[in-house]
User: Which sequence fits this backbone?
């Protein structure tokens, strides 16, 4: 019996088209325009007060969801313990905790790097779509992990940031020859960094996710790399401002995510399926899916950030804290917490205490309790306070944003 033919990919033309033909782009650009409008709604909805803490929360959530897709996730409560350097005695859970923390740190470091380049968007694009950037992203995800976390199935160690030096297959897809990976990456960057600002940028970000996964530039970690790159592409273009991410949507539709990625690996389906080696129709389906996820996530976040309801949400949370949890957090905190949610600046402790209407001793104790329970944050023992978002407040402040974290809190994990 003759063995099935395996395609040998050794030249960049073999993963064309990298973008759909011009006459197929109009519908995608219309959908991308809807995403941009939804992004504007998010930016208009969010008050200044919770933005820093919300970004921190979303980094935890993004880490959870990208690792969920890999089947390597840990519980939200275990991520919190890992951030406090409290790792599980179960080595498999501890490994997943380290992966989660590494993703959070990588996301923050790279967002900070891109924010520093924000005055020159062209510089951002040129860097993000470079082999250097991919190496930086991959290294950020895996640097500092112990050898046991980097051990590959063949017994070798993953070297963070180093392109693969062997052949790999992912399902039915045989990735390009390892000697050709630099040429494929050069073509990948050349095309996508030239996208015009606006709708074309969104389409390019979506398409680049698949084509980067198709190249499979590293021995391991390519899925996490592609999702982090997509997250950062949206951030650098100003679409998310760190306030939403498609990673949540990818994880919640992960069967479609995987199926459409795999379908876009396939060859052209005949003379009416574009002019490249790979299927243009499948690439269009993939881009449409990414735009659909982005639209859904942006609209969802805008609905969670509706400031018209936030006072009632804070009040409901404080009522339960006072009547059920009984850890010293009570309704007297409503006015100053709502003020902090809406404010652009932290509040001096004396002002916060004055807004509670309590006497000095009780107000001081309330501030201490709010800090201990995570409802307030501060950068110094006596410094100003800002709005905090403990996991157990999520179901009140931003309901259904992170159901797994809500479940952990409900079960007392």
Assistant:
């Amino acid at each position: 019996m003759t063995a099935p033919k395996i395609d040998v990919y050794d030249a960049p033309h073999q993963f064309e088209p990298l973008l759909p033909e011009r006459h197929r782009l109009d519908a995608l650009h219309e959908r991308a325009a809807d995403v941009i409008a939804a992004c504007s709604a998010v930016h208009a909805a969010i008050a200044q007060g919770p933005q820093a803490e919300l970004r921190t929360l979303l980094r935890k959530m993004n880490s959870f969801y990208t690792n969920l897709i890999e089947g390597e996730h840990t519980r939200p409560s275990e991520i919190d313990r890992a951030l406090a350097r409290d790792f599980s005695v179960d080595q498999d859970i501890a490994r997943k905790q380290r992966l989660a923390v590494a993703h959070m740190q990588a996301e923050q470091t790279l967002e900070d790097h891109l924010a520093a380049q924000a005055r020159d968007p062209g510089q951002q694009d040129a860097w993000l779509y470079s082999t250097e950037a991919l190496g930086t992203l991959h290294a950020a995800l895996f640097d500092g992990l112990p050898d046991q976390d980097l051990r590959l199935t063949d017994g070798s160690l993953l070297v963070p940031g180093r392109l693969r030096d062997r052949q790999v297959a992912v399902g039915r897809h045989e990735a390009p020859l390892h000697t050709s990976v630099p040429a494929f990456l050069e073509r990948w960057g050349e095309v996508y960094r030239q996208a015009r600002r606006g709708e074309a940028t969104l389409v390019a970000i979506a398409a680049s996710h698949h084509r980067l996964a198709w190249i499979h530039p590293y021995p391991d970690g390519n899925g996490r790399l592609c999702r982090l790159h997509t997250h950062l592409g949206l951030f650098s273009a100003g679409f998310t401002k760190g306030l939403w991410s498609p990673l949540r949507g990818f994880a919640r539709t992960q069967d479609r995510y995987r199926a459409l990625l795999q379908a876009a690996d396939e060859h052209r389906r005949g003379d009416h399926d574009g002019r490249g080696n790979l299927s243009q129709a499948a690439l269009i389906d993939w881009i449409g899916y990414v735009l659909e996820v982005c639209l859904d996530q942006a609209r969802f976040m805008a609905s969670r950030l509706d400031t018209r309801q936030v006072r009632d949400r804070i009040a409901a949370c404080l009522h339960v804290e006072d009547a059920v949890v009984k850890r010293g957090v009570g309704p007297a905190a409503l006015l100053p917490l709502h003020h902090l949610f809406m404010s652009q600046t932290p509040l001096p402790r004396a002002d916060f205490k004055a807004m509670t209407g309590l006497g000095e001793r009780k107000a001081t104790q309330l501030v201490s309790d709010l800090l201990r329970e995570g409802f307030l944050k501060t950068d110094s023992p006596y410094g100003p306070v800002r709005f905090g978002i403990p996991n157990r407040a999520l179901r009140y402040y931003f309901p259904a944003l992170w159901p797994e974290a809500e479940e952990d809190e409900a079960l007392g994990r």
